Every structure is written in C-alpha cells, then in structure tokens.
C-alpha cells in the first residue's frame, strides 16, 4: 500500500491585501512610466507609495518564509530601481564614484541584497523546510 500524501497547504490572500497589491502594481507602473517619460516630479512622488506598500506587504507576510523572502526582494528591487531613476533624473548616473563604478552602478547594492535574500531562501531555508516536512510525514 502506497503512503498517503499530506494535503498541500493552501495560502490565500485576504481581499484587502489583494487590493493593496493591485494598487502597488499601479503605483509601480506609474513610477516607471514617469521615469521613461522623464517626468521627474511624478516619478519621485511615486517612490514613497510604491516602496511604502511594498514594505507593508512584506510585513504582513512575515509569517510565511517564502512570501517574506520574495516580498523583501521586491522591496530591495524597488529601492534599487528608485535610486537608479533618481540618479538619471539628477544626472549623477554617469558620475565616477570609484574606478569603473558610476552612480548608476550603486543601484547594484540593493539589487544584490534582494538577490542574496532569495539565494538564502532557496539554498538554505527552503531545503530545511522540505526536510522538516519529510520528517513530519514519516
């Protein structure tokens, strides 16, 4: 007789959270359109709500390691993206900071932090969770 598998855990998002995520996407798109069109005031104005909602979403999902990791990566992605936009708007994107490093390259710091969070999740945390689940089903 084959062992019975455990039912898969369901993660559902409350409607108010879903509305907040959808609003977040709207703000993010407006910010990036403003960047593309070089509408400086609008682009800079949209950083606060875009980043703010990303932080709230990360905080609200902190009980779920996978969701937290991905939402923190998004926070750092928006941070990097917003810094890059700002560097272009104010013309320090091409300024030399170090040899072979310009102002725009500094956006790599938050991008790499976000990537590091995801790498940690997938290389360390998720394998631990999977191992714990396997032990629990024995």
Question: Mind explaining what this structure looks like?
Answer:
The protein is mainly alpha-helical. It is built from four helices and two strands, in the order H-H-H-E-E-H. The chain has helices at residues 15-37, 40-60, 65-89, 108-136; strands spanning 96-98, 101-102. The protein has a two-stranded antiparallel ribbon with strand order 1-2. A hairpin with a 2-residue loop joins strand 1 and strand 2 (101-102).
Produce the secondary structure layout.
Layout lengths: L14 H23 L2 H21 L4 H25 L6 E3 L2 E2 L5 H29 L2
Antiparallel strand pairs: 1-2
Number of strands: 2
Order of helices and strands: HHHEEH
Task: Give helix % range.
Answer: over 70%
Strand content: under 5%
C-alpha termini separation: 15 Å
**Spatial shape:** flat
Rg calc: 19 Å
Low-confidence stretches: none
Task: Compute the number of helices.
Answer: 4
How many structural domains does the protein architecture include?
1
Mean pLDDT: 91
Structural class: mainly alpha
The main β sheet shows up as:
2 strands, antiparallel
Q: Biggest sheet, strands in spatial order?
A: 1-2
């Amino acid at each position: 007789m084959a062992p019975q598998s455990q039912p898969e855990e369901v993660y559902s998002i409350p409607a108010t959270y879903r509305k907040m995520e959808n609003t977040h996407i709207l703000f993010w798109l407006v910010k990036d359109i403003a960047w593309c069109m070089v509408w400086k005031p609008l682009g800079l104005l949209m950083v606060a709500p875009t980043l703010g909602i990303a932080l709230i979403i990360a905080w609200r999902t902190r009980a779920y390691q996978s969701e937290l990791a991905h939402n923190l990566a998004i926070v750092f992605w928006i941070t990097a993206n917003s810094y890059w936009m700002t560097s272009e708007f104010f013309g320090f994107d091409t300024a030399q900071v170090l040899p072979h490093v310009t102002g725009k390259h500094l956006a790599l710091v938050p991008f790499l932090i976000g990537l590091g969070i995801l790498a940690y999740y997938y290389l360390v945390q998720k394998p631990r969770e999977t191992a714990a689940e396997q032990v629990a089903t024995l």
